[in-house]
Amino acid sequence: MGEESNSLLWIISILLVGYFVLTTWLGKKGAVHSRSMKGFSIAKGKVKPWIVGVSFGASFASANLFLGVPGWAYTYGVSTLWWALGCFGVTWIGLLLFTKKFWRQGQRNGGSLTLPQWLGDRYQSKTLQVIVALLILFNIYYIVGQNVGLATMFETVVGIPYIWGIGIGVGITILYVSLGGAFAQIISDGIQGIIMSVVSVLLFVSLLWTIGGGWNVLGHLHTELSQIDKSLVAPTSDGGPFYSGFAILSIQWLLFSFVLLPHLMNKVLTIEKEEELRTFTLSSGITLFLLSVFSVFAGLAARVLTPGLVSADGAIPAYIMEAFPTIIVALMVTGIISAILSTTDSLYLGITSSIGNDLYKVLVVPLLYKNKNLSEKQLDRKVLRVSKMSLIVIGLLSLYMSIDRPESLALLTQFGISAIISGIIAPISLGYFWKSANKIGAITSVLFGSGCFMFLTGTGIVSHVFQALFFSSIVGFVLMITVSIISGYVVRRDKVMRAEQQAQ
């Protein structure tokens, strides 16, 4: 066993060195496109739309779909399939609904580079742009989740110390993102998405020899789980995220609105022509299906094959060690590591682009260079420099926050996501369909929607993260509609009064 582990360590090390060389090469290749903020943050028109679509699916997948969600399946059973169903079907429906109008709005005023800028342009409000940029900093929790997932893979499969695994992931990602920006990130994610799709299919096919039963393999798996614990085959699960119909609906709401996250919607802004959106959404849907469904079954199979794991998040690593020979294990581990890095690099790029474009440019530049006539090129160069420097700061901060391993990887990643979605879902969706939506309503919705989520989860009034998101989103919608109507009425009334005074 020790010799096999040693061989696995060497093979994975060689593959990781190859991966490091590839991403560094992509970073250098993308450097030519990253000499401006537009090139660094979205690389518009530089990558084929089908690759951007695969990159979307890969960025969506993350450590959560390959470690956290199978960990839920290991603990709570088949009720976790509600999550897999939502990841593919509900999320893709959300993408289809939002993509075209988001892209069209993003082309106005010279083009948006980030989600906060998109909102700022839509509502003509720099204040809203800054507030949303600050809110996006909550994605640091999502990055921490990816760090923990990566370290768990290294620790479980090859025995690399937890903290070393975090350091490896942070170091590799910061290097190639700082070099190549969005171009390197999207291309590397596209490659990773293809590898991850193959890994997902292999995980499902492997049930034929790990669980057995031939064409009735799923029925056989159901029987095995039922013999362990009847609750593992129930449609809901006591004590877990899927404990009731309302809890499941709340999760579907999260997955529907998930596409609005900054590091995902930035992919839409990468597309150059409107007719390319169809290719983008199709490749996104296929990738979402392959990545979101099959790993759950491996998590269920792990409960049968490797009961008593110390950490449920280690279900997939433990399963592949049982199911495959050393060389295949090494390839699959590399694929899962790719899943983790493909989300991490998107998150780093999204946060740091926002720090430069939406915080530094809007808040700091007017103060530091108030009396200096900076050209557009000089300004862009300074904003780009700040964005790249902030990569190091965010990387070190995420490393520090990752030192203490959380109880549940899936719940950690969902906390930061839900805080952001609670604030932005109403301004984005109402900004599409409702002409009366205005900046006062949008600002109110962002502040109170996210504030409500943090209050509910912080006080424990609603301990279920997804239900807290649902309630907070409703608060955001109600407040935005109410405030927009009232403020719109006040503005119209003032205009009428001024017109009457001028007439007199």
Automatic annotation (TrEMBL):
Matching Pfam families: SSF (PF00474)
Keyword Cell membrane: yes
Keywords: Cell membrane, Ion transport, Membrane, Sodium, Sodium transport, Symport, Transmembrane, Transmembrane helix, Transport
InterPro entries reported in the protein's UniProt record: Na/Glc_symporter_sf (IPR038377), Na/solute_symporter (IPR001734), Sodium:Solute_Symporter (IPR050277)
Domain of life: Bacteria
Family the entry assigns: Belongs to the sodium:solute symporter (SSF) (TC 2.A.21) family.
Annotated protein name in UniProt: Sodium:solute symporter family protein
